[in-house]
Design goal:
Blueprint lengths: L2 E5 L6 E2 L3 H13 L15 H11 L6 H18 L3 H4 L1 E2 L3 H9 L4 E7 L3 H9 L13 E2 L6 H16 L4 E6 L2 H9 L3 E5 L6 H6 L4 E3 L5 H8 L2
Parallel strand pairs: 1-4, 1-6, 4-5, 6-7, 7-8
Antiparallel strand pairs: 2-3
Helix pairs in contact: 1-3, 5-10, 7-8
Length: about 230
Amino acid sequence: MRTLVLWDIDLTLVDYSGIGRRWYAEALATVVGVPLKHLPSFPGRTERSLAREFLTAHGIEHSDERVEHFFAALTEQAEQDRPALPSLGRALAGAPEILSELGAREDVVQSLVTGNLPVLANYKLAAFDLHHHIDFETGGYGSLSEHRHDLVAAAITQSSAKHGRFESVVVVGDTPHDVAAGLHHGTTTVGVATGRFTADQLAESGAHVILPDLSDTPAVARALLP
């Protein structure tokens, strides 16, 4: 049975807590030259959704053109910080091991469903050498839509077009938004309680499987694979 595993990034595979606030503040200053006065709630959100809320809260029209300028400023901040990313965050326990374990299997393809922009997703994972087993080309990214379920649809469609039909699709993340997006498309959903939400909250959101973290590689592999 061929399986597509779609990973969230932040607080599922890596932790860069605090970097989003700084990048958003610096991007705001770059794009419109005003100080930060509102920060949206990040967990489980897409970059497009966050950018629209962020710009609106600062009295700035959120046209597609303005949002794209904001994305460009975020990318510039990430470029500047790229050499320091290993010291600005950390890989979460078990992330390297499970990515490697699944990457060695011919019946598994690993890609992403993440609120991040594509380039930020790559930088965040490459900082800890976690990028080798991920197909970035077929991921669903936060630049696509305000709605996370659109990202799941994009990742499934693109992965299937490139790799062929999958009998099983698994969405893995640390927030109820991740779970809801997977359930919307009938995927298996795995909640990992390494973020801002407890195991009970993830269970209440409807996740099929709850993991405390990714540290037990055999247990995680059993949860992800039929």
